[in-house]
Amino acid sequence: MKFTFGLAAALAIASANSALASGDAAAGERVFNQCVACHVVQNEAGETLAGRNGRTGPNLYGTAGGPAGAVEGFRYSSSLAAYGEAGNVWDADSFVAYVMDPTGYLREALGDNGARSAMAFRVRSADDALNLYAYLEQLAAQ
Fold first, then answer.
1. DSSP label of 67
2. Closest CA to 80 of 67, 93, 61, 92
3. What is the distance between the alpha carbons of residues 56 and 30, in angstroms, rounded to a whole number?
4. Could you please report the per-residue DSSP string of 76-120?
5. What is the pLDDT of residues 40-77, one digit of tens each?
6. What is the CATH number of domain 5-140?
7. Whole-model pTM?
8. 1 within 8 A of 111, measured Cβ to Cβ
9. Within 10 A of 1 (CB to CB), how many other CB atoms are there?
């Protein structure tokens, strides 16, 4: 598989970071403040654990370690839906690479230069992305 420099670098950083640390959930909570305009974390009982009423993006409860594109009733891009239908899950490496470059990640993962993500926002650093993953993982345990 041919990688673009940006995606290859993000994957390398993500792999190095996840091998060295599992992320800082407290720092991830601060990073999540950038996500609240579009996302909420709401458990199965309907309790809001993080965020407001962001509904542009899917509920992120259970994202960490969970299947990609699996929030029932949410309308994903066809590319992310295909990624999820292929059985992919959001482990730390894939999550970090995705949130740093959503469209680039899907293009590489699907081997389709026409693949697109509906998520335009990008987390700027691999550390922030890994911390965000740790925060979402912590919320899923509640």
1. B
2. 67
3. 20
4. --HHHHHHHHTT-B--HHHHHHHHHSHHHHHHHHHT-TT---S--
5. 999 999 999 999 877 799 999 999 999 999 999 999 99
6. 1.10.760.10
7. 0.83
8. yes
9. 6
